[in-house]
Write a structure and sequence with these properties.
The complex is a heterodimer. Chain A is an alpha+beta fold. Chain A has one helix and one strand, in the order αβ. Chain B is an alpha+beta fold. In chain B, α1 crosses α10 (233-242), α10 packs across α11 (252-261) and α12 (270-283) packs across α13 (293-300). Chain B is globular and about 55 Å long. Classes of the chains: A alpha+beta, B alpha+beta. Chain A binds chain B through residues 25-36, and chain B through 1-2, 4-5, 7-8, 13, 18-25, 27, 38-41, 49-54, 80, 168-170, 173, 207, 211, 214, 218, 245-247, 255, 258-259, 262. β1 of chain A pairs parallel with β1 of chain B, so a sheet runs across the interface.
Chain lengths: 36, 305
């Protein structure tokens, strides 16, 4: 079996931590009317 | 609305590290579905509430009843609505509307708003000895009239279907430019109507309570946008027209003049202004509550420095 390099392992770990901590940036919505 | 458009166009939310999507509210949908505030936008999940945006002063009855899921966190504009009569009309005051028919924007109705014709119209007429609900016919114009407001109002005046209209900027600018109508009385230019915020700025309570840092960033971006619009009214109109937010058909300089009158840079104690708005409506019997105006401010306003 092919081994992961240290760099790849760190990257995978960082991604997992990011996902687990809700690392994706929150997207907000602003409602606007048609006026001035 | 110019500050909301400007914040999006100029990337002011992004500069605060926020990812924000601007969505037009679905006013007709909100009214037809019995919603309690204006911040309903169309998404693939149906009509949902935006995270933040404008909160109308004449929806404070719903706020007092605990039916609005946003806190008020700042003020936005003073005025934006007028009662207009034909450009050659001999009507000169609110008292002259007694016995007349006034067609109003279709969102100027109860229960979506606190009373038919809004507070400023009822108040102005009352001062002139006219009961807006009994002495005047306040009739909502059809939604279909809105995209062709100038022709609709001009034809209605000529045919005698109504003698005045209740309209919201930029409709007045269009009607004045086309020489179809003139202002009889104004929320924007007349005290005391222009002493209270016509629209506030609100953010979802959950967002404020759980992520006060994000809410503070939203408020900072909004305040920078308000100031930029106030200091650059013509550029604000041109920029937001080019981006497709503000109608390209509305003339720039008259719109810029209106923007200057909306008080986006006015320095006001928002909490005190909101308390006065609650108090006036409680005393008028429009908000029925056991709470004081100060209590309502404590419940529904969050101050950001």
């Amino acid at each position: 079996m092919k081994r992961l390099s240290v760099g790849t392992a760190v990257l995978v770990l960082a991604l997992l931590v990011g996902v687990a901590s809700g690392g994706a940036q929150e997207k907000y919505t602003v409602g606007y009317g048609a006026g001035t | 609305m110019l500050p909301l458009y400007a914040a999006l166009v100029k990337g002011l939310f992004a500069e605060e590290g926020l990812t924000v999507q601007g969505l037009p509210v679905d006013t007709r949908g909100a009214i037809e579905q019995g919603k309690t505030n204006w911040l309903h936008v169309k998404t693939d999940k149906g009509l949902t509430e935006a995270d933040f945006g404008f909160i109308d002063v004449d929806q404070l009855h719903y706020m007092a009843a605990g039916k609005i899921g946003h806190y008020i966190v700042d003020g936005m504009n003073f005025g934006c609505m007028d009662i207009m009569v034909p450009a050659d009309s001999t009507l000169t005051s609110a008292a002259d509307l007694k016995g007349k028919t006034v067609e109003i924007n279709p969102w100027w109705i109860e229960p979506f708003r606190i009373q038919r014709g809004l507070t400023f119209v009822n108040s102005e007429l009352k001062t002139s000895g006219v009961d807006a609900q009994k002495d005047v016919t306040l009739r909502p114009m059809p939604w279909e009239a809105l995209p062709r407001i100038a022709d609709y109002v001009g034809d209605g005046f000529k045919a005698g279907r109504f003698q005045a209209v209740g309209v919201t900027e930029p409709q007045q600018t269009i009607l004045k430019e086309r020489k179809i109508a003139k202002v009889l009385f104004s929320q924007t230019y007349q005290a005391p109507h222009n002493q209270e915020y016509c629209c506030f700025f609100g953010i979802k309570r959950e967002l404020v309570d759980r992520h006060p840092d994000k809410a503070a960033a939203i408020v900072r971006a909004f305040r920078r946008a308000k100031l930029w619009v106030a200091e650059n009214p013509a550029r604000a109109v041109i920029t937001t027209q080019a981006a497709g937010y503000f109608p390209a058909s509305v003339p720039v300089q008259p719109s810029a003049n209106t923007v200057s009158a909306l008080g986006f840079d006015r320095k006001v104690d928002v909490g005190a202004n909101l308390e006065r708005a609650f108090k006036d409506r409680i005393e008028a019997g429009l908000i029925k509550t056991g709470k004081s105006a100060a209590d309502l401010v404590r419940l529904h306003y969050r101050k950001f420095d």
